[in-house]
Amino acid sequence: MSSVPSEAPVHITNFIRNLIDEDLRTDKWGARRDSVAIRTRFPPEPNGYLHIGHAKSICLNFGLARDYAGACHMRFDDTNPVTEDTEYVDSIMDSVRWLGFDWGPNLFYASNYFDRLYGFAELFIEHGSAYVDSLGAEEMRQHRGTLTEPGRDSPFRTRSVAQNLDLFRRMRAGEFADGAHVLRLKIDMQSPNINLRDPVIYRIRHAHHHRTGDTWCVYPMYDYTHCISDALENITHSICTLEFEDHRPLYDWVLNKLADFNALPRPLPQQYEFARLNLTFVVLSKRKLIELVEARHVDGWDDPRMPTLAGARRRGFTPEGFRLFAERIGVSKADSWIDMSILEDCMREDLNERCERRMAVLDPLRLVIDNYPADAEELCQAPNHPKKPELGTREVALTRELWIEREDFQENPPKGYFRLSPGAEVRLRYAYVVRCTGVERDAEGRVILVRCEFDPQTRSGTPGATARKVKGNIHWVSARHGGEVEVRLYERLFREAHPGAGDRNYLDDLNPQARRVISALVEPALLAAAAGEQTQFERHGYFVADAVDSRPGKPVFNRSVTLRDASDKPRG
Ligand code: ATP
Ligand code: MG
């Protein structure tokens, strides 16, 4: 993706922005007499946690409201009592706020409109535009036709207004069992668009609703509820994903009828569709995410491997990184796949700016500086950020015995290896140049200790010392001062870019290496990390102190993202 600018401008224009510019130029919405120029909405159904795909929609809708002096409504589309829960409502609000957006006073629930929606349904009946159908589900399916065959009218389509009103009122009064009747709009069973073949707008559900309790036993369907909710809230731009394109004629039909009945004012809201986010190496379907949680393939909705916003947050992904990502991928009408590495790059860019640097050894090997006095120690000045001197420095104590990374020593180094090997020299970051003088092994012949000598003339930061050029520059942790911590190394949840493609089961594509738990040795400053604190472990990547499992003085670190893409060349 070399064509992607590294500094995304605040708004890259897109087709929706162009449409809004045009609407504003022609004062299309002027007759609404609203206090804000445009209104958008983000309408999740509270039946799961938000995922990375939702972040695209949130950034789009709230971003438009921000940039056009408009308002974005937070609306819970809670018409299905069986699958919805307040746990989801809370987590959704939490995630939207975390992403940096605020709906102000504009918090709504579709269930607040149940009375209005019911009243409008009676209005449709009174105008002969809706009828109670008593076909069974299977018969109704047969009457609906297919993409290539027109549907057939139900024998109940000709019921009188009086009969329909009576039956609908008795449905609402709880006289009938689930499935006995439904209310349908009377549009056109021959329409080439299946959505217009007399869609069901009410069904009987004797179920407890998380907000309206047992007040209702008939519940409105999504298509009917959504457009009316938009109109009642004075939404101008109702932006949804492409799969709703074929529903737009129904959206317009319902609202235009109600306007014709003088039940709604014009101008009416308009629906616009954009391509949903498809991201490689994850799944973004609520059904699959629920399955991952319930079948315990992950530890919960906020497991750092999950593509939920709660999981991404715990993983150490940032709101700024998500907003950058949303700007960078843009908005279009063409369905496409976005590579996970683009999201990871956005996180790296943000974390690189904000994170202080620390030293941590993930795969420790002992190093002894034989000519360094056993009791001595000296404080080396390490900058907290290489590009931000204003973030200051910290002191790290150098001692005779240190931990270094096992991969920073090789007995038989390949060509181009600039780190430690017998006889070779390397700089210990912020300290001295050392030369390897030998090794010690365990019974199996494995190297367990590297012996070195340091050159006192080479201390970092002292004039003249830098004249001594060595190519390798490795990090270390003092054996006397460092501490041990648990580190969780996260990778992508799936090992295939398109989990479940072909006839595979997506669960078979889970990456068993997506979490590896290790014990690492870290410089003392890291032991004080507060839950949620983010740091770069030099040469390793960005890490966050886990918000759930960290304890004071005993942080647990999650790797958010490595320093560079795994497909890039490994370092020398
Ligand atoms: P389901 O998985 O059950 O179809 P959903 O993902 O559409 O549900 P909703 O709660 O209805 O979940 O989504 C709320 C909003 O987020 C909708 O406006 C929807 O268009 C948008 N959205 C959902 N998934 C994506 C995605 N992958 N990319 C962009 N927007 C999305
Ligand atoms: Mg949906």
SSE arrangement:
Blueprint: H1 15-25, E1 39-42, H2 52-67, E2 71-76, H3 86-98, E3 107-109, H4 114-126, E4 130-133, H5 137-144, H6 161-172, E5 182-185, E6 200-204, E7 218-220, H7 222-232, E8 237-241, H8 248-260, E9 270-274, E10 278-279, H9 286-294, H10 309-315, H11 319-329, E11 337-338, H12 340-354, E12 356-358, E13 360-361, E14 364-369, E15 378-383, E16 393-398, E17 401-405, E18 425-428, E19 433-441, E20 447-455, E21 473-474, E22 477-478, E23 483-490, E24 515-522, H13 524-527, E25 534-537, E26 541-545, E27 556-562
Parallel strand pairs: 1-2, 2-3, 8-9, 10-11, 12-25, 14-20, 18-21, 23-27
Antiparallel strand pairs: 4-5, 5-6, 6-7, 13-24, 14-17, 15-16, 17-22, 18-19, 19-20, 23-24, 25-26, 26-27
Helix pairs in contact: 2-11, 7-8, 11-12
The chain binds adenosine-5'-triphosphate and magnesium ion.
Describe the structure.
The chain is α/β, with parallel strands linked by helices and 572 residues long. Among the domains are: 176 residues, HUPs (Rossmann fold, 3-Layer(aba) Sandwich), CATH 3.40.50.620; 103 residues, Glutamyl-tRNA Synthetase, domain 3 (Alpha-Beta Complex); 118 residues, Ribosomal Protein L25, Chain P. Helix content is 25%, strand content 23%. The chain has 13 helices and 27 strands. The strands form 7 sheets. The protein has a 7-stranded mixed sheet with strand order 12-25-26-27-23-24-13. The chain has a 7-stranded mixed sheet with strand order 21-18-19-20-14-17-22, with no helix packed on it. A hairpin with a 4-residue loop joins strand 18 and strand 19. Helix 2 packs across helix 11, helix 7 packs across helix 8 and helix 11 packs across helix 12. The longest helix has 16 residues. The N terminus is likely disordered.
